[in-house]
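Now for today's protein:

——
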Amino acid sequence: MDDPICGLCGRPIPPGSRQSLHHLIPKLKGGKGGPVVRLHQICHNEIHATLTEAELARAFNTLEALRGHPRLSAFVGWVAKRPPGFHSRSAGGHRKR
């Protein structure tokens, strides 16, 4: 069976790698029970370090929109050069929800 693919960076998520589900519309903004996408944990962390819950709900509630954000686009280019199981702390820290 093939490894799942990260919805943001497109790299495989190997067994045992840090991963999580991202609600395309944040639960705090009405997305509970809505669509989710599996991501590497580092990719998920970067999304939440870059965008507020309000920004995610309003303008970045699709994978295409997330990939189109300048900071996330640069991050995807950077992380694509790392092994699929790579993880490190995000540089930006979390934004206020």
The CA atoms of residues 49 and 94 lie 4 Å apart. DSSP finds four helices and two strands in the chain. Residues 19-79 form one domain. The mean pLDDT is 90.
